[in-house]
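User: Hey, quick favor. My workstation is busy. Could you predict this chain's structure for me?
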Amino acid sequence: MSKSNNNNKEYIIDNTEDLKAKITESFDDFTLRAELLMANIKEGGDDDYDHSVTTAGEKGLKSGKISELTVIAPLKEGGAARLKKTLDIAKGNLKGATRVGTLHDLRIVFIEDDSKILFCTAYDGDWDAYINDFATKIPELMDILFGNVEGWPGIKNPAVKQFILDHQITATGWYVGVPHLTVQDIRRQDKIVKGVNKALDEAQA
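Assistant: No problem, here it is.
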């Protein structure tokens, strides 16, 4: 009986510690929420856009119509030198990526003493369709760049999607300034603005 009481006492003590931890955690959460609210009130802006974040597919975040993809992958021996040479020859111009049609931006960064590559993009729509666009619209460019990555199966290989998922990291935070405009929307509006400006210039000439 005594032993049972001791066990009960220990259990109660454990529960008390758990309760204290939960209260502390709840208070910390409350404090953080309050600080974030105050920061948004003092520094935040309201542009009438919905900046909430959802999922872009199996991995990656999506805000409005824009999604993010972040990949970190090891390079083959000599891969960094070859990739740097490729980018040097291209003078940083990867305009072939324009054919994808949904690509907002693309960044390639060497990390960990050039042993790995960090590849980040922002694109329109969902993950699966985006990878399909790479495979069908710029397969040669993709294989020239990523042929330097360890284990790269080739962009047209059915295994490539799993390869990308294995090396993709979903962003912890994702913000898009104008989340409702796709690349095509931006280009169309840019043409309209240029046309209006041209007409105004001609009218004033």
